[in-house]
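protein under study:
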Amino acid sequence: MGRLDRCYNIADLRLQAKKFLPKGVFEYIDRGAEDEVAVVENRDAFKRIKLRTRFMVDLSKIDMGTTILGKRWSFPYAVSPTGMTGLVWYQGEVELARACAAQGIPFTLATNSITAIEDVTRGAPDGNIWFQLYMWSEEDHSYALVRRARDAGCQVLVVTIDGALGNNREYNKRNGYAVPFKLSPRTAYDMLSHPRWFGGVLCRYVANGGMPRHENYPEHYRHRITTKTSKSPTRHRAMTWPDIRKLRDLWQGPLIVKGILRPEDAEAAIAHGADGIVVSNHGGRALDAAAPTIDMLPEIAAAVNKRATILLDSGIRRGGDIVKALALGADAVMAGRPTLFGTATGGKAGGEKALTIMHREFEKTMAYVGCRTIAEVSPDVLAYPPRGYARAMAAE
């Protein structure tokens, strides 16, 4: 029995990923900011929400599919942008994009990925590939990157707005994982004590062109991760809503704004041309005191009032979480860690395993609450109103 065969849920995939990856890489993808309160509370908020079952429903014909932003999805789940996908598996971005294409859901490529946009779109030609943008202070480079994503065939632009000042993740520094990467006896031992990762990921990069680098950065910033004098483009600290309008004018396809936790910000995003928003606290990896996204969703959904697509991320670990998000006003969810754990466990097959688990759990939960299609999910499936729901109803 292989490693994937022994994985029955996302927690199992996480444990396998922890065994495979060096500690520094694993903690980079698994942990959050500062005291990691937001990571815990994202999950706790979902756990507090209870559902009411409904039986004696004809379940012989169930359709978990949905159409969002003009595309048909097999179920309401998209993979969030994750910058370390290419370090959990050799060309992990391509492997995961192929897994998403096979499962009929979108894959979002991060600005900070170490595989070039063009390689990902060529590697998954049948995929629904989205591109996530961090605006840089050198705006011309950002606009050039947007055009590059468009020319490569990316179909949706996801603009992340919650990362201007970076983050405070002390464990990365303790583990020695930063850019530029500093080789030390500690990090060398960490890598060499995980020989399958060392040989199958890092050594393959070295053998096929050298140490990894951020292939979507401007050429003069495209350094190897071990280059001591390497500098990265700085985030745009003066970004405001008119910048979204500029991107809207440049990008002809659907545009999504990611990082919304306020109703007024959702309304501003729509007013400046966004087709959708992502209710997100960056998976607990940015502001550690950020409110759980599922608690903020009802009020935001009431403000949007179906004028734009609403996705929710941060804390999704079970298929049942998707049902809870739909009941509170989301059109779909996004998640990054589940498929990162899967990709680290088995490349494309591992990514597919994670998505299959989420789909299966989602379908079973839908059956338990008596819903045969996405359209049938409503607040009626909730056992009692969660936090934020009463305030949202009062606002209406």
In short: Residues 223 and 230 are 6 Å apart (CA to CA). Residues 337-368 form the longest helix (32 residues). The chain is about 45% helix and 10% strand. The longest strand covers residues 128-133.
